[in-house]
Amino acid sequence: MNVNQVIKRTNYLDWPEYFMATAFLAAMRSKDPITQVGACIVNGKNIIVGIGYNGMPNGCSDDKFPWQKSKDKLTTKHTYVCHAELNAVLNKNCTDLYGCTMYVGLFPCNECAKVIIQSGIKKVVYLSDKHSYKAETIAAKKMFDVAGVTYEPFSPKNKKIVIDFEEIDWNNMQQCDFSPNKDEVDVLENSLEPLHISGDSNANQ
Ligand SMILES: Nc1ccn([C@H]2C[C@H](O)[C@@H](COP(=O)(O)O)O2)c(=O)n1
């Protein structure tokens, strides 16, 4: 077979779409009945190093703590909920987030901006800036500007990215000419002598 005749897929997700979609998938874990936010942190090698969504702190049951909004500080969700950005930073799976980019559904508030700056993240890509008029957002931008954290809106190539577990027909994938199909593999495996491995059966192979 001539390898040049096989053309790669072109409708694959580009990196920013993949990272924002990951943030949106994480947001689907949120129990907040009004606003679900997800955040995804990526390093310079396009490796995801932290993911988070808004939720109650560990050990604080999301059946017992309030999900309502209220003027009373003790009964409003805002007093208790950990924002997606904070959780993504705390969930990091590497030693340091220096130079990383955060993809997030909603522009960070002032409290998350402080966490982002202190963690070393250098860029924020956001989808919505619907609270741009609020003091928390204005303060966040003020801090980002002086601390050298850049921020830009996400402009999606695709408005929708659908995850459909039935989309890929695993049983009917186009095989290479030389790839055996399932029946051929069965015949091949049945014709093989059983393999006897001697030595330590717990060896890590
Ligand atoms: N950048 C943000 C902004 C908000 N959140 C979370 C905090 C709450 O759970 C919810 C906002 O509630 P709303 O006042 O819209 O009912 O979203 C976040 O994680 N990150």
TrEMBL record:
Pfam families: dCMP_cyt_deam_1. It comes from the Eukaryota. InterPro entries: APOBEC/CMP_deaminase_Zn-bd, CMP_dCMP_dom, Cytidine_deaminase-like, dCMP_deaminase-rel, Deoxycytidylate_deaminase_dom. GO terms for cellular component: cytoplasm. It catalyses: dCMP + H2O + H(+) = dUMP + NH4(+). GO terms for biological process: nucleotide biosynthetic process. Keywords: Hydrolase, Metal-binding, Nucleotide biosynthesis, Zinc. PROSITE patterns: CYT_DCMP_DEAMINASES_1, CYT_DCMP_DEAMINASES_2. Its EC number is 3.5.4.12. GO terms for molecular function: dCMP deaminase activity; zinc ion binding. Supplies the nucleotide substrate for thymidylate synthetase. Belongs to the cytidine and deoxycytidylate deaminase family. This is Probable deoxycytidylate deaminase. It comes from Nezara viridula.
